[in-house]
## 1
Amino acid sequence: MRIVTFAGLLVLAAPSGAQEAPKTPQAPQVPDQPPEKALEAAVAADWPRFDHGGKGHLTPDEFSSWLITLRTQSNGAGEDPAKLRAWADSAFVQADGDADKRVSPEEFTAFLRSKLKK
Ligand SMILES: [Ca+2]
């Protein structure tokens, strides 16, 4: 009996709440990337495929091939190549904000962002 009583005392003496499982912090919710970040990440991921030689900018040809690739991915193939090229050439002028005939990653991202907002 003494042992049982002693055990009972221990239980009674335990501070209330000690039996609760420790609170595990909620895993932080990982929100979907905001579109801006997703866009930057997508540009960064694909940049090496189109910036031949890792120059850090796109030539008009590289820009056109990237843009036409993106457009073909979303619209499917079958558009008139000459029209696509003319479209891409005019887009290059829009994207090349400082008109140095090169499109930097920042210019490219800004250009795509401006298109996404529409
Ligand atoms: Ca430029």
## 2
Amino acid sequence: MTARHSSLLVLMLTLCACSPSPAPSGRVYPGDPDSVAVYLEYCTACHAAPQPDSHQASDWPAVLERMQQRRLSKGMGLMPAPALAVISDYLQQHAGAAR
Ligand code: HEC
């Protein structure tokens, strides 16, 4: 590994070390940074990603289903199953309390 690459790696590790994870928008999302990264990758394409506690766990599956349809109608194709699984787990884990 070259010196240039290793300093880049250190920079990336430093950036990833802070938690919770700030999105490029400056919003902060709770939880595991790797899951947040997948969540933001797929859920900021059309609008700012909502906070996971903005819906209850029981509501998220229907929202994800609607967003899949919106992707199709924009010609984006469905979210791949592994990403969908990460996003679904992430939202379930940090969903809002029942009101
Ligand atoms: C193909 C574009 C697109 C993508 C990608 C997308 N959305 Fe949406 N989303 C929309 C549109 C259009 C609306 C409805 C208009 C609005 O509220 O801005 C919406 C609304 C929402 C809403 C509020 C209304 C509702 O249906 O409850 C939530 C919550 C939401 N999206 C979550 C998500 C999540 C989570 C993801 C990632 C899995 C995602 N969106 C990805 C297009 C998209």
